[in-house]
Amino acid sequence: MNNNEINLKDKVIEGYELAEDKEILGIFGNPIKHTLSPVIHDNLSDMLGLNERYIPFQIEERLGDYVKAAYESQILGLNITVPYKEKVIPYLVDIDEDAEKIGAVNTLVRADGGYKGYNTDMEGLYRSVTEAGFEIKDNNIIMLGAGGAARAVAYMCVKYGAKKVYIVNRTLEKAEKLADDMNMIKKDNANEKTFIPIAASDYIRIPNDRYLFIQSTSIGLNADDGLPLVCDENFYDMADAAVDLIYNPEKTKFLEVMSKKKIPYINGLKMLLYQGIIAFEYWNNVKISQDMSEKIYSELKKYYSNK
């Protein structure tokens, strides 16, 4: 590699700079302009009196070279976001067991010779869900989507003992692949599978019962987006509670329907908060109190409400 071709400063987005007198944390992604992660990490650094700053890097290509350059530049830790959570894995020297099973990494921690990969999305989601009073263990769940974000959702259902999980997706093959992967991890017997793939067009196959709905598609990010995958509002009568991983806008069409039906729900803002806090704890070997978490959440909501 020609080091002259790799310059992390060129990838810092407008409004940020690599301060030589501070330790650097950061995030690699594309696009990355609207990330709220600096709100989490810079406030935590200030609260704890740490001389750190969090920098967003817009990485369009040569991911492996930039990961290596970050390590050689003594960057303390990195978050990884779309589209690189799976693509970054070959460039790591080690990977946490949960992240390996999920098949996606969102946090890099310095290790001997390179970075070790973790997935804090899953634990961040679990923390936000349980804080809201929603149950995973022995509960029935309907997952909407089978993409990258859905893998963390599905593995959470494995790890924390969901009873039955229906994976609804427009493309049945993707739902089947995710269901097969998770059933294999869970080591279900041949006749009783926890994860059941369902084509969105065939949603009436799901037994009439009460479910925790978890929406993991990108449908809802745009103002004119409708309901995700299943447009029949009667389908959502089966919801006992609802989670949307999207946090901006605050209330997607999916959550508007849940609100209209008086079903308790949360969006993804606390998942964002907790996945960031867990990453920060890895990087600095500290424990963030719930009081500090709530202060950061208040700061997030200030930025979030202005978007």
Q: Which features does this protein show?
A:
307 residues, alpha/beta, Rossmann fold, 2 domains, six-stranded mixed sheet, six-stranded parallel sheet
Fold topology:
Blueprint: E1 23-29, H1 37-48, E2 52-58, H2 63-72, E3 77-80, E4 94-95, H3 97-102, E5 107-111, E6 114-118, H4 121-131, E7 140-144, H5 148-159, E8 164-169, H6 172-186, E9 195-199, E10 211-215, E11 239-244, H7 253-260, E12 265-266, H8 269-284, H9 290-305
Parallel strand pairs: 1-2, 1-3, 4-6, 7-8, 7-10, 8-9, 10-11, 11-12
Antiparallel strand pairs: 3-5, 5-6
Helix pairs in contact: 1-8, 1-9, 4-5, 4-8, 5-6, 8-9
Short description:
The protein has 307 residues and is an alpha/beta fold. It has helices spanning 37-48, 63-72, 97-102, 121-131, 148-159, 172-186, 253-260, 269-284, 290-305; strands at residues 23-29, 52-58, 77-80, 94-95, 107-111, 114-118, 140-144, 164-169, 195-199, 211-215, 239-244, 265-266. It has two domains: 3-119, Leucine Dehydrogenase, chain A, domain 1 (Rossmann fold, 3-Layer(aba) Sandwich), CATH 3.40.50.10860; 123-268, Rossmann fold (3-Layer(aba) Sandwich), CATH 3.40.50.
Gross morphology is globular
Task: Output the CATH class name of the largest domain.
Answer: Alpha Beta
Would you identify the CATH architecture of the largest domain?
Answer: 3-Layer(aba) Sandwich
Specify the helix fraction band: 25-40%
Q: Can you tell me the residue ranges where pLDDT is under 50 for at least 5 consecutive residues?
A: none
Gyration radius from CA atoms, angstroms: 20 Å
SS element count, helices: 9
Structural class: alpha/beta
Strand content of the residues, in percent? 15-25%
Query: Strands of the largest sheet, in order across it?
Result: 2-1-3-5-6-4
Order of helices and strands: EHEHEEHEEHEHEHEEEHEHH
